[in-house]
Amino acid sequence: ILCLVSAAAALDFKYHHAEELAAYLKGVHAAYPSFTHLHSIGRSVEGRDLWVLVLGRFPTHHKIGIPEFKYVANMHGDETVGREILLHLIDFLVTSYRRDPVITRLLNNTRIHIMPTMNPDGFEATKVPDCYYSRGRYNKNGEDLNRNFPDAFENNSARIQPETRAVMDWIRNETFVLSANLHGGALVASYTFDNGNSVTGSLKGYSRSPDDDVFIHLAKTYSSNHASMYKGMGCDNRQTFPEGITNGYSWYQLEGGMQDYNYVWGQCFEITLELSCCKYPPADQLEKFWRDNKVALIEYIKQVHLGVKGQVTDKNGNPIPNAIVEAKGRPHVCPYRTNEQGEYFLLLLPGTYVINATVPGFKSMLKTVEIPDNTGNFSALKQDFSFSEVSIRSSVASCPKTPLYQELAWASAAVKPTLHVLVLMTIMLVIFK
Where are the transmembrane segments (predicted)? Predict the structure, then answer.
């Protein structure tokens, strides 16, 4: 244990390979067992653990009312900055807890999951650091993990990889509300949708989600608190990003991405953070990258407390899982539902909203709420729903992993031919008469 504690105390600004990374995380947990929990959510193709360190007042399990947040880095094995700054974020959080009042309140009211590397095999395979593309981007099977998830717009033929499957199971088993995926090779905060069709406005070069205003806010929160991202200069004169943000589809179309999967099937708002023009920069630059991102990383976590949260219960006060709870006017293609504890979390900007709670087979309940900015108080507005006529648990509901937006596009397109046929039939009838 003394060796592990010593390892936890010695975090240098260098690249940490698999054994060093695991030793550091184990050391942190040994040094701070009361508010950390270390576990592996699965293994890579080559058998390396996919480590996640959880931090919070209740690190081992979900607690009602406390939202779940996650950071994931090194999805592309040769994009390395995120991997290291997440280790330094861990170091900052554990050493500040119970010393810094803001960090203490943040950890007391948020359960934070940190995965420093989703693609450990790709990182280890990158023998020669390079600012540009390398084979280390892919996992051991040569698959791009950020093209490997089910897609809401088109059939993704890629075979699901062990790393992807582990993350999908992780998302299914937790009530994640907010997330960010750390990459490299650019300097911008990119937000969903990465893919699109006519239903989401892709014909105009922008794929808009029902919560586009929230995503813009989230991206701006990170960029404006970053040392230079907000300037929007990009990495060369050919590419600029106003305010340091971009809609994913507007930048380039991407099928099978993790942020779209989180939003559609995980009920979790995720953005992609490109943190360095150089994918695998020299280790002597890591300290500057940490300084540039430190404030932004913390301010972004606070956004998990945006909006409204609560429980849906029956007449006996028992939680109702799988009840649909959404803000009126912004329905999701896969309806957002309560978890096993009957909880819901909706990220919404300050304003007036009508929240619609629906238990299948019963009349919906509507409640008008005035949502303040509660991020500084580390708690979203609380609004519960009680169905007095319901005394049964809602049946298990799942959203099929089919291209849901593709079906909407077909339905939308089907209306036009129908109208054309009706017009032609009317003309023919007039001619016939």
Answer: 408-432
